[in-house]
Fold this protein.
Amino acid sequence: MTRFAFAGRCSTEDLQDPETSRNWQLTRARALIEPAGGTIVSEYFDAGHSRALPWKRRPQAAALLKALRDPHRGFDAVVIGEPQRTFYGNQFGNTFPLFVHFGVPLWVPEVGGAIDPDNEAHDLVMSVFGGMSKGERNRIKIRVRTAMASQARIEGRYLGGRPPYGYRLAFAGRHPNPAKAANGKHLRRLEPDPDTALVVVRIFTDYLRGKGLYAIAEGLTHDGIPCPSAHDRARNRHRDGHAWSKGAVRAILANPRYTGHQVWNKQRKDEVLLDIDDVTLGHRTKLAWNAPDQWIWSAQPVHEPLISKDTFTRAQAKRQARSTHQYLERKPRPSAHGYALRGLIRCAICDRRMQGTFNNGKPHYRCRYTAEYAKNAAMDHPLTVYVREEVILPELDKWIATTFAPGRLTATLHAMHQTQSSAVPVTTATAAARRTITECNRRITQYRAALDAGADPQLATEWINQTQSEKAAAQQDLLAATAVEPDILTADQIRSMVTELGAMTDRLLAAAPERKRPIYEDFGLTLTLDMQKRVATVESQPSQACTYDLCPRGDLNPHAR
């Protein structure tokens, strides 16, 4: 009897049911191997991961590649139920050599058994399926983008996303797709928010009267008007919401939807290589702003405007004149200086990264929170928090040399292990997201009961859809919070890491300040500076694995600040 490992993948849960997708792929795999006396003893199934991701970046696929190296792996061969779901582009050519190297046969239904590495027809078939998979994904992208462009330009349809500050969502009729309409989905449109619409009008009026961005932000904060993140705390829990910022005012001034037109395609998703020296690592998706001439405007106004199109045009002309004037006056100032703690030191008051700056020939770090955010009573932040690098580095190096010295190895090991054990169970963000999901489930059950009891179907459906939107946002928060939680390291792993880092201490003490930053990163250092107490708190979280940070939802929506 041949023991098989099953490998598969499905798209995100919004597009597919992972269990259904797994079942039909598993059925195809069993139909292939069972007549030959094979049985599946282990599974490696990725749910919610794009096919464009290479195997080493999909959790289960990466685990399978790791298992291939283990002579006690527990299986003799690997079977794939649907190669078009598993391989994309040239992924087969980059992955199959590993199966050949470790002597593990790879079975697929399309060749009727194991792939023969010396058979050109087998290689051609698998390459064709990889190309078909890539072509299918590209065709879907083209169809979706073309349809959305037509819906925005011709129908003026609201295409989703959070409503801009100053508007709220309103019912706009049944969904034109009968299946979606039967499931309670309906169209939405923007309508003025009575609490914030006049604030948008005030911002445009003040700007055209000559006020600057900071002056507008300061006036709004002084008058006690909540900033966008304070107005909508449910979607902006990652922001403090204490005061208006120049970025929030700038984003409102640049938003054309206040003219009553639906505008789409202001942003695009670019696929950028993770490593230009290793293209097999694939791409990462990066949001970028499109030029205004690429925006898709609805032919006619489709919701109530807050400002006239002439007002918006004059505001953009003024913004363009100011940006051109500033560009002519200020020349680019590329920094030739090195900062040992760039990106590693934060301000204890506002928790923002401190900026590196050179002053009197020496590197400094500063936090200018009040240069971006208006002054407010909730946060007593000085105009500038300032510290010299030469004040911190000697004490920091002394701490590292002491903490990672051979004589302190056991104590450091124990402290790191205890910190992991106590920190991992539940984070604040994770707990908050789970509470929100539980509350949303309770409310949905309550609304459905009201609907069964004879409540207005339209009103109850709107309640349910709104709650489901909140639940989806909380699920995204939970995914982001759990995705960045570090793996628990064993005592042996920590011992190995500390030993290696301890050997770097001599290099650290001998290195020039501008060359120390990579060493500090290896130690996983983060510093929090409290200038009021004149204390710097240092944390060290060295890691053996590389991670990719997730951008918090809303960072590319500065109007939500």
